[in-house]
Write a structure and sequence with these properties.
two-stranded antiparallel ribbon, 148 residues, 6 helices, mainly alpha, globular
Length: 148
């Protein structure tokens, strides 16, 4: 069975991204971090993940610069995990996955969560890729070009 190339050698940005956040637990940790979860025990409680798996994913996310550790904000001996600017740039990815799930994985009227804009109290608008002039762009309107 062929092994995956090292992330730094992969020419595809999607493949490199998946090496960092492409497993279930890592992306759910990032989602929870956006929701304000900061402590190991809170991540574990929310996710129901084994301690060793959680510890490994948190370490990988810290090493990748998605999360950083800091002293607990309440002055206790605990440490907290917070999103870095690199991690915060994953917000559109999490929103896009959320919206895809809302549209495709729930039956009409089925109970689910909704992302709300705190300023307006209304659901966040649907995300779509846009051209530079603001027009929605579809997959058939795009192509991938390699750059050096």
């Amino acid at each position: 069975m062929p092994s995956n190339p090292e992330p730094a050698n992969q020419p595809c940005p999607v493949a490199r991204s998946l090496d960092v956040i492409g497993d279930r637990w890592s992306l759910l940790i990032v989602r929870d971090a956006f929701d304000g979860v900061r402590r190991f025990g809170d991540f574990q409680r929310n996710l129901g993940v084994a301690r060793n798996i959680l510890a490994g994913r948190l370490q990988k996310l810290v090493e990748a610069g998605v999360l950083q550790t800091q002293a607990a904000s309440d002055g206790s001996a605990y440490q907290e995990y917070v999103l870095t600017p690199r991690g915060e740039r994953l917000f559109p990815v999490v929103v896009a996955l959320r919206q895809w799930g809302e549209r495709n994985l729930f039956a009409s009227g089925e109970r689910h969560s909704v992302l709300i804009d705190r300023r307006t109290g209304k659901p966040v608008g649907r995300m779509d890729p846009l051209t530079r002039d603001g027009t929605v762009i579809r997959p058939a309107d795009t192509e991938v070009r390699k750059v050096r």
